Amino acid sequence: MSAPVDLVEVWRGDMRESIHQGHAVICDAGGDIVQAWGDPAAMIYPRSSCKMIQALPLIESGAAAAFGLTPAQLALACASHRGAVIHTAPVNAWLDDLGLNDDDFCCGPQEPRDVADRNALIRAGKAPCRVHNNCSGKHAGFLTLTKHLGAGPEYVDIAHPVQMACKAAFEETTQEDSPCYGIDGCSAPNHASTVHGLARAMAFFAAAGGRSDVRSKAAASLVQAMVTFPELIAGETGACTELMRAMGGKVAIKTGAEGVFVAIIPEKKLGIALKIADGATRASECAIAAILVKLGVLDVNHPAAKARMLAPVANWDGLVTGRIRPTAALT
Amino acid sequence: MSAPVDLVEVWRGDMRESIHQGHAVICDAGGDIVQAWGDPAAMIYPRSSCKMIQALPLIESGAAAAFGLTPAQLALACASHRGAVIHTAPVNAWLDDLGLNDDDFCCGPQEPRDVADRNALIRAGKAPCRVHNNCSGKHAGFLTLTKHLGAGPEYVDIAHPVQMACKAAFEETTQEDSPCYGIDGCSAPNHASTVHGLARAMAFFAAAGGRSDVRSKAAASLVQAMVTFPELIAGETGACTELMRAMGGKVAIKTGAEGVFVAIIPEKKLGIALKIADGATRASECAIAAILVKLGVLDVNHPAAKARMLAPVANWDGLVTGRIRPTAALT
Fold it and tell me: Is the predicted ipTM greater than 0.90, yes or no?
């Protein structure tokens, strides 16, 4: 097991103030490592970065077709959204279609990260609902599958048919037996894998368009949904949204809590997974942008790339006091 | 130069999810290292952890006495507050006393971290002011010294008499020549030192009560102000506030951005400084609590200690999904 390596540094004035280490793997469709940093065998929780894997059973089961889910709904099932109205309105409509309401969600209420819609909620004197949870689209997918299967309401239980299907999809696409799981921020189980395993799963998604089996077709439709609706994945200003737009729909990317980021590159049939050892999102965003630039799929001069790779640290008065940037290992 | 060492780990379920490394030094009144982790010579920006040093010139110059500043005002000068009314009301009154207003502050407007008072501001349709900046108490001190010296309004300029006095106090208490400075979140210069140097300065404060020179008397009065008004230093729920209360006024502690924390222990004439290499506050809070427990000045069973040292990671639905805790190095 090798140690994590320096991936991202934070500068203030002429001195490096903080440093982020991590592990990263670029994997091909055969499951082999193309390039790696740190320890490919490091065991991690993918957190929200594996939502597209958790959405596979929704399609494979026939539930998505039976309920007529749109590509926008599939994108929401893969999203870590900002609780903005552009997210909560369609998720609420989806709940209506299912004949369910906010109380049927197992994810807890979360204050919207979208500042304008958060402030509107506060001005209206309303508390955040479960639909505002950044995972509510994934949970709408879980509820859809639950209904399709005629299963019980406790759909986040590890032994629930929905979670058993998610675990199977996770282990089959990572091609690993997951040694353990944790409970995620939204109360759903989150299965551990190596960084290599997570990258292998992303490579499966990347190469899915060239195959015609049920799982591959499901994977390809999820990738297409993600790149078609980047604003549903992470909301305006979100790294996933802005970077997917910058890549013009050619690459699907997804963040996960505690410093995880993944990418799916169909044109190269490559998958990427990375974990910042200390869990910092500012670093995972910088590192994924740097690797995408390195692979030639993201323009280093695009504002969305520069905002992550040479991110100005601005203080409360708007003064630029430093920069966040990738280390030499990533450039 | 030695590498940072593992200080704090974040667990989810049965697996360690993230890890924080850092440097820490416990220093005695003679400036010698009592115990250290990582590299005592690591160069850092103290950020807000050195506000009590930046407040020394305010007292030494005679400005505090001339303007009749109270211990509560001295505490506010050392604070990184939450922009709650208990902070902004006295700072605004202080501005009034100086015949100045919000526009005279050089710190930028910041949304209050106190949720209730933040929401009140949003409901009133008001934008945050400069007084809401967590450093506004320090800036009120800067303005007081500026007025006392008859100096110009640009009091955050590196060549302004206020900042020259702050730099001298910093270099004299750390007993180091600072190699560089950065611009802090509040636009004031922040001078770099080693972790050892910052701990040495804290030991100077810790032993100040036993000396009668002007600087030592100033230092002792600032320590007394901090421990007397913990709620002015960090607001309710803040780590500085809760941990200082838990130690019953015997220890002054102060957080700084990017994972810095310091402590002043008069009864032992010891100073502590630590820096989490990746800049995480959750880790600096855990590490300082662990060291204070180790030194016997903080009860490991006090709720405020347990909240940092065995901090439950709760998700949006209130489920405990993991723990933040110190590594074996700190226990």
Answer: yes
A129-187 pLDDT, tens digit per residue, is: 999 999 999 999 999 999 999 999 999 999 999 999 999 999 999 999 999 999 999 99
CA gap B26, B200 in Å, rounded: 8
Look up residue A199 and give its two tokens: 């990258």
DSSP string covering B171-214: HHHHTS----EEE-TTSSEEE-EEHHHHHHHHHHHHTGGG--SH
CB A198 within 8 A of CB A178: no
Nearest Cα residue to A75 out of A238, A309, A207: A238
Minimum-distance CB partner of B19 among A14, A106, A278: A278
Nearest to B202 by CA among B134, B273, B274, B261: B273
Distance from CA of B72 to the nearest CA of A (A): 25
Of B110, B192, B278, nearest to A278 by CB-CB distance is B278
Q: How far is B258 from chain A, CA to nearest CA, in Å?
A: 7
Closest-CA distance, A249 to chain B, in angstroms, reads: 32
Give the pairing of strands B15-28 and B270-276. antiparallel
Mean pLDDT of successive 10-residue segments in chain B (331 residues)? 92 96 98 98 98 98 98 98 97 98 96 94 95 97 98 97 98 98 96 98 97 98 98 97 98 98 98 98 98 98 94 86 95 91
b/e per residue, A31-57, with b = 16+ CB within 10 A? beeeebbbbbebbbbbbbbbbbbbbbb
CA distance B5 to B272: 16
Contact residues on chain A for B278, CB-CB shorter than 8 A: 18-21, 278, 280, 283
Ordered domains of chain B (ranges, CATH): 5-326 (3.40.710)
Q: Which of B5, B12, B313 is the best substitution to test chain A (most A C-beta atoms within 10 A)?
A: B12
Q: Give bridge partners of residue A18 from the DSSP assignment.
A: A10
Strand pairing category for A320-326 and A311-314 = antiparallel
CB atoms within 10 A of CB B53: 28
* Window 21-80 of A, Cβ < 8 Å to B: 21, 43-45
**β A15-28/A33-37 pair status:** antiparallel
DSSP B259-299: TEEEEEEGGGTEEEEEEETT--HHHHHHHHHHHHHHTTSS-
